[in-house]
Write a structure and sequence with these properties.
By secondary structure, the chain is mainly α. It has one domain. Helix content is 53%, strand content 0%. It contains four helices and no strands. Helix 1 packs antiparallel against helix 4. 20% of the residues are buried.
Length: 87
C-alpha cells in the first residue's frame, strides 16, 4: 500500500529546468516544494542537488547577488549535462 504514492525520480534535465525556473523567479506552483523534496536515486544527481541547496532555500534564490546566481547557474548547468541513464 505504501508504494502507491512513490514519486517518479526526475531526469537531470527536468531537475535543472525546475531549478532554473526557481532561480529566475518564474517557478510554477509546486516547483519549490518539488525541488526541495525531489526523490533522487543516483549519487551524482543527489550531490549536485545538495550543492544547489547550499546556496540557501530555493525560494530565496531569486534574491541572491549576481555572483552567487552565476555560481548556482553553473551547478544547474552541470545537472542538465548529466546523462539520464548514468545519474
Amino acid at each position: 500500500m505504501l508504494g502507491i504514492f512513490k514519486r517518479k525520480a526526475p531526469t537531470p534535465k527536468e531537475l535543472a529546468d525546475q531549478a532554473q525556473r526557481i532561480l529566475s523567479g518564474e517557478c510554477r506552483k509546486w516547483d519549490v516544494d518539488d525541488y526541495e523534496n525531489a526523490y533522487l536515486e543516483h549519487s551524482k544527481l543527489r550531490d549536485l542537488h545538495s550543492k544547489t541547496m547550499s546556496f540557501g532555500l530555493p525560494e530565496e534564490w531569486a534574491k541572491l547577488d549576481d555572483a552567487k546566481k552565476l555560481k548556482l547557474l553553473r551547478v544547474i548547468e552541470e545537472i542538465s549535462q548529466l546523462p539520464s541513464s548514468e545519474t
